[in-house]
Amino acid sequence: MRDVFDLTDDQRAIRDLARTIAREKIAPRVAHHDETETYPEEAMRAIAEAGLYGVWLPEEYGGSGMDCLSLSLVEEEIAYVCAATGTNYGSTPLGGLPILFAGTDEQKKKYLPRLATGEITAAYALSESGAGSDAAGLRTRAVRKGDRYVLNGSKQWCSNGDHAGVLTVFATVDPAKRAKGITAFLIEPGMPGFAVGKKEKKMGIRASPTVALHFTDCEVPVEQRLGEEGEGFTIAMSTLDITRPATGALAVGVAQAALDAAVGYAKERQQFGQPIAAFQGIQFMLADMAMQVHAARLMVYYCARQYDAGLKGNTLEASMAKCFAADAAMKVATDAVQVFGGYGYTREFPVERFMRDAKIMQIYEGTNQIQRVVVARELLGG
Ligand code: COS
Question: Who's near 379: CB < 8 A, 6+ residues apart?
């Protein structure tokens, strides 16, 4: 039986499982990890034990052979209780999809089954201090020396970079070639010359580690190159075509949580002798919030489905869904704080966390300005 979102039985089962894990196993320690900026080990373990790590992977690699929509549903449910945990979870498809897309048989067999079970997690290292939006301008160098490459440079803002068992790292064999010089490598912790650097202190998603990575004459065997020299940029961008809607799903989760909290509070909070939900000013805010959440969800599901249907070229929809959902989450979370009034500004209630967490969604996986650039290019051509 299909529901209003036309989810299959499998998709509904995976969503319901993720919802149960999130609300029963992850939720109790969210405030603690946010406050202490610590990694939610028990939450990540619960996700692994439930078998949710493999939803994006084919069965031959130990995954559940599901789809982009299933990944988005899981991300939404986790983010409903904790966007930081959702970000940690999302780092594995972000770092692992490049292996699925471009890996050799050996590379796939080496990493994907372990990513499917959560035995190891992955990370994706594209950004640098001088190359955020302009990803093709990255400067980390890879120089071929016989059967190895020597990597030098630094990466910035890498989610999960200090926990990942494999990191997809983008470097350039020739900066003058821009996108055409970018080459991907599979890096493991402990490789000589590779070191995890500073962990950022952030406004939100504080339970998700964001770190710098340093490469100093780091020797990487040629078998650890992912794809051919110069293919890295295409690998990076085609990965984002899937992970951007999934990021939109994180935003939908946060927005739904903020809406639900605001509705609940508006019905309880008494002012002028009645619940504030009786005031039309509050009703209109809630109605606008609900429309934002609904539209964002539909855009995310549509884009994920488009990908799953094997329709090529969902770049436009991926950028639209990510951008719209992130803006919606920011607006809805900000309005939820407003509905809560003075209480909303305190850490007694989770809405201030929703507002802090929503902000990153307008920034990571490509800023919302870059998403608009992509949308405009797709519309106008060139
Ligand atoms: N899928 C496959 N290939 C893609 C692609 C996609 N979605 N988007 C671009 N490419 C290819 C292009 O086709 C082009 O190849 P050809 O020259 O062979 O045609 C190549 O990649 C370079 O693309 P483009 O010329 O568009 O590169 P730009 O330098 O203009 O950059 C933007 C494009 C701005 C869109 C890109 O740099 C970007 O997304 N920046 C944000 C980075 C980001 O999201 N960072 C967050 C990392 S995750 S936390």
Answer: 316
Our answer on whether the CB atom of 364 is closer than 6 Å to any ligand 1 atom is yes
Q: Does 246 contact ligand 1 (Cβ within 6 A)? A: no
**pTM of the predicted structure, to 2 decimals:** 0.97
Ligand 1, pocket-test mutation among 97, 101, 233, most atoms within 8 A of CB = 233
Contact between residue 225 and residue 52 where contact means Cβ atoms under 8 Å apart: no
CB of 365 closer than 8 Å to CB of 240: yes
Close Cβ partners of 324 (under 8 Å, ≥ 6 residues apart) = 248, 295, 296, 299
For residue 126, the ligand 1 atom closest to its alpha carbon is 47
State residue 312's pLDDT score.
67
For the chain, the residue count is 382
- The proportion of the chain whose per-residue pLDDT surpasses 90, expressed as a percent, equals 96
Look up residue 25 and give its amino acid. Answer: K
For residue 184, the cross-strand partners are 170, 226
Which residues, including other chains, have CB under 8 Å from residue 281's CB and lie 6 or more apart?
Answer: none
Instruction: Please report, rounded to a whole number, the percentage of residues in the chain having pLDDT higher than 70.
Output: 99
Specify whether 59 is catalytic. Answer: no
For 295, phi then psi, to 5°, come to -65, -40
Provide the 3-class DSSP secondary structure of residue 261: helix
How does DSSP classify residue 201? P
Distance 318 CA to ligand 1 centre (A): 13
pLDDT tens, residue by residue, 361-375: 999 999 999 999 999
Q: Which candidate, 62, 75, 177, 58, places its Cα nearest to that of 113?
A: 62
Query: Residue 39: CB partners within 8 Å, gap ≥ 6?
Result: 33, 88, 163, 207, 209
Instruction: Please give the biggest Cα pair distance in the chain.
Output: 79
